[in-house]
Hints:
It is a single chain. With about 150 residues, the chain is mainly α. It has six helices and five strands, in the order αααββαβααββ. The protein is elongated and about 65 Å long. The model is unreliable at about 55-60 (pLDDT under 50).
Amino acid sequence: MQPLMRLFHREGRGAEAEAAYQRLRRSLEARGGLSPSAETEALRAEMARPFIPETAQPSSSPVAPSSPILLPEKPSLAVLPLTNMSGDPTLDYFSDGLAEDLITDLSQYALLTVVARNSSFRYRGQAVDVRDIGHGLAARCILEGSVRASEG
Length: 152
């Protein structure tokens, strides 16, 4: 079952990978209360993160190679760190927290693949073309923006 789960995950078909896991779990449970192996559980945890092909992994710079990558079939989104426009560097935590909340909330939609925070935040403060970021993160859409605090 693991090869099938891996294949679905690599093709961006997370719901089908999860369904394969659930079928395995139910089958094992029906055979005497068994449960999936630690390796299968680790694979399931790995599948909770979007699959980024090795060609999309940066080597020394965050800009990915120009070779084509496989994008998930369902919409994929990367939320970049939001720029703190308030002028107060102590409020950076607020802009990061807001971006993290967006990532968390958007990842609740089963029809959307959301790139993990650790992957998208590596582009903080870098002048990189959003097309290159999308390519590097295997994301069809990029959300970027800024936060400004007002006095009051």
